[in-house]
Write a structure and sequence with these properties.
Strand content: 5-15%
Low-confidence stretches: 1-12, 189-284, 552-558
Structural class: alpha/beta
Number of helices: 24
Mean pLDDT: 78
Largest sheet: 6 strands, parallel
Number of strands: 14
Distance between the termini: 15 Å
């Protein structure tokens, strides 16, 4: 054991001396963190027409009751489907029971979407939630989204990542609704009224109205091939080719209703109408911008206004406030993340929905928000306007709190995957970060954030912190004992033991639920960091007033 402690001392000395590059280490520590099903607490409030059904054991129900702290009469939009011993032993029919619960939810709450949250138990007993959901969805008439937000993940914030990745599969694409929307929008732009040609949005009505110039068979039924053949005679610009079978059309030459409508309008326009493709007109000239990550509506509005000042419009959010307002996702869509724990969602958007990911630092703190906006502006060919002045003004307003944190040291034990962004912001505030522990690190998704962290350390002339993935808590305690940081940001499992040893701590979970994004919310981060430091100052002042030289009830027993 003494050898291990001496080894850690050597490593820490090397860390403090080396500041040329980021160093990454991976240990095999335990995951002392919240359960990811806690994401229900903020997602059910964000998606206002949703209902979350957590499928797990009584332990999951106890956790939700205690962690979320919602009273019974509040009637929250989530519930617990508790698995009994008979369910686990597969003696009962899971489908029938889930069907009964979902129909009860529909009768009582009538949500627009039901989200099934699978837990550790459903993973272990191999419940086929993805197989049951489509069939039950057809019977129920309400979309059912399945998300495996269980304790097998690295951090509790990854529960949101799992839900958003599953919900991204339900987002519409332009090809599914562009024809209907482009018909309504583009027809209103023509001076010629479509009623003049008896044009209807329904193909059956078109066939009915076309009987004045399309021949029929003797029995009064219309042959589809004769329909287009007669159209070729009526419209010279319209042509088709027969396939091997006379009564069918080749797939290459089949004409959708929207093109038929275009030819009819062109015929009547006396050559003044320029032929255009309606579907191409419906596609935006500039790619759409979709932001993914759950934020309070007030913070989302602030970020939207910041981008609007740069002439950039946000096409949608994932998740949206209402399920019916999910954004369109396709190859003409740029997506950008809000939180660093959404790597699975980013992968789904790129691989499954073929979107283009904007790799940018996350909008946490004035420096991160500025870099985030600059990156989006560069993608859209916009020159940022007034960002330098805005960032400077924000820092000037934070000067009272910055005086308290300058020169102080901080140690991240790792809990919610926000550690890299918070460390970068605190270094910009003048603090020294000894170590950044993080349960899981996707270096590709956080590449821009890591680059900004390294740049910030060089500009502030401070040592680059060591980044430890899956840190071992025993060795972390040894490093904390050696470095004696002014503040340790840790999970609730370690806060009280460290406080008992005279180490000032701050719960990392508070940063998850606080509004920390954007320019104006930078003070919220500093308030959380400085609160324990101000408390220590007040305690010291109290003891000094009585002439005491120590301000601790418990001496450091490290």
């Amino acid at each position: 054991m003494n050898f291990e402690i001496q080894k850690n001392k050597t490593n820490m000395t090397t860390l403090l001396e080396e500041k040329e590059k980021l160093t990454f280490e991976c240990e095999t520590g335990n995951y002392h963190t919240f359960c990811p099903i806690s994401c229900v607490s903020w997602l059910y409030q964000k998606i206002e027409d949703s209902f979350f059904l957590v499928i797990g054991t009584k332990t999951c129900g106890y956790f939700l009751q205690n962690a979320l702290g919602v009273m019974i009469f509040a009637e929250p939009r989530y519930a617990m489907a508790e698995l009994e011993e008979s369910d686990i032993s597969a003696k009962l029919n899971d489908y029938k029971e889930l069907k009964r619960l979902c129909f009860q939810i529909k009768e009582d709450r009538n949500p627009s979407v039901i989200v099934w949250i699978g837990t550790c138990t459903t993973e272990i007993i191999k419940m086929d939630l993805e197989g049951m959901a489509p069939e039950l969805e057809r019977e129920l008439g309400i979309p059912i989204v399945v998300a495996r937000a269980n304790g097998l993940d690295y951090a509790f914030t990854q529960g949101e990542d799992t839900v958003l990745a599953a919900m991204a599969q339900r987002c519409p694409s332009l090809s599914t609704n562009v024809e209907e929307k482009s018909q309504k929008n583009s027809l209103n732009q023509f001076p010629i009224s479509p009623e003049k040609f008896n044009i209807s949005n329904n193909e059956n009505n078109l066939l009915k109205n076309s009987k004045t110039f399309f021949p029929k068979k003797k029995n009064g039924t219309q042959n589809p091939f004769e329909f287009f053949k007669s159209l070729e005679e009526f419209l010279p610009s319209f042509s088709i080719q027969k396939s091997k079978t006379e009564n069918t059309l080749s797939k290459k030459n089949s004409v959708p209703f929207i093109d038929l409508q275009e030819n009819m309008l062109e015929l009547e326009s006396s050559g003044n109408f320029k032929k255009e493709n309606f579907v191409q007109n419906a596609v935006l000239e500039n790619p759409r911008l979709v932001l993914f990550g759950s934020l309070p509506n007030t913070v989302a509005t602030q970020l939207k206004l910041e981008l609007n000042r740069q002439g950039i419009e946000i096409s949608g959010w994932l998740p949206s406030t209402r399920y019916s307002d999910l954004p369109i996702l396709d190859t003409n869509t740029y997506v950008c993340g809000i939180n660093p724990f959404l790597s699975r969602t980013a992968t789904t958007l790129m691989r499954r929905r073929k979107c283009k990911l904007i790799s940018a630092p996350f909008p946490i703190g004035p420096d991160g928000t500025k870099a985030w906006i600059e990156k989006i502006c560069s993608i859209y060919g916009k020159k940022p306007i007034g960002l330098e002045e805005r960032e400077t003004k924000i820092w000037e307003g934070l000067e009272d709190s910055l005086k308290l944190v300058r020169g102080k040291s901080v140690f991240f034990m790792g809990d919610n995957l926000l550690e890299i962004s918070l460390a970068r912001f605190l270094i910009r505030c003048g603090m020294i970060v000894y170590e950044v522990g993080i349960p899981y690190l996707d270096q590709r998704f956080q590449a821009a954030e890591l680059a900004l962290l390294e740049k910030t350390c060089f500009e502030m002339n401070v040592p680059i912190p060591r980044i430890v993935e899956k840190p071992d808590n025993y060795y972390q305690i040894s490093r904390i004992r050696e470095l004696q940081p002014d503040l340790v940001i840790t999970g609730m499992a370690h806060a009280n033991p460290l406080e008992a040893r005279n180490i000032t701590t701050k719960w990392s979970v508070e940063f998850t639920f606080a509004q920390i994004h954007g320019f104006t919310n930078a003070r919220e981060i500093l308030d959380l960091v400085t609160r324990p430091l101000r408390r220590n100052q007040n305690i010291n002042s109290f003891y000094e007033s009585f002439g005491s030289t120590t301000s601790t009830f418990v001496q450091n027993q490290f």
